[in-house]
Specification:
With 161 residues, this protein is mainly β. It has a single domain, classed as Immunoglobulin-like (Sandwich). It has no helices and 10 strands. The strands form 2 sheets. The protein has a 6-stranded antiparallel beta sheet with strand order 2-3-10-9-6-7, with no helix packed on it.
Length: 161
């Protein structure tokens, strides 16, 4: 069987209070920080890569694909995008809130505040698509009742997945 490759999404943005990237917490995501999001699909799988520059050095962050594009309020991007949606909201059940059903992109910055991370999921977007990548204040939790939570929304990049 031949390999099949579908399109690629690429977004680069500088965080500010407007446009396609928002910095909700300028301490954690300074206005001059930058992000790049790349989506590649291949043989029924999707890989999303997030690269950040200029965040706080040597710090762990959570990051996830969210259902809607960014907006001026942190909640504008909606909940995490889930390939198989959890019927209970908010979704904190590890059966749904996990890195195979959602796109988790947690990272730890280096001494310069830079990091690159990627996640490959065994599915491709269909009519339902994510609209953004949100950077959270804390790494993602995995315990039942807390799965998928990662603290306050510190920044957001709109992406047309």
């Amino acid at each position: 069987m031949a390999n099949s490759v579908r399109g690629q999404a690429l977004v680069t943005a500088t965080f500010a209070r407007g446009g396609g990237a928002f910095d909700y917490d300028r301490t954690l995501v300074p206005e001059s920080a930058r992000a790049m999001v790349v989506e590649n699909t291949f043989d029924g799988a999707t890989t999303v890569t997030l690269s950040v520059r200029g965040l706080l050095p040597n710090r762990a962050y959570g990051a996830h694909a969210h259902a809607k594009p960014c907006g001026p309020g942190g909640d504008d991007s909606g909940a995490h995008f889930q390939h198989m949606p959890d019927p209970k909201k908010p979704s904190v059940d590890p059966a749904f809130a996990n890195p195979d059903n959602e796109i988790w992109l947690d990272f730890t910055t280096d001494a310069h505040g830079d990091a690159t991370t990627a996640n490959t999921v065994p599915w491709m977007f269909t009519d339902a698509r994510a609209g953004s990548v949100v950077i959270h204040a804390d790494p993602t939790q995995t315990a039942p009742g807390k799965a998928g939570t990662a603290g306050a929304r510190a920044g957001c990049v709109s992406v047309a997945f």
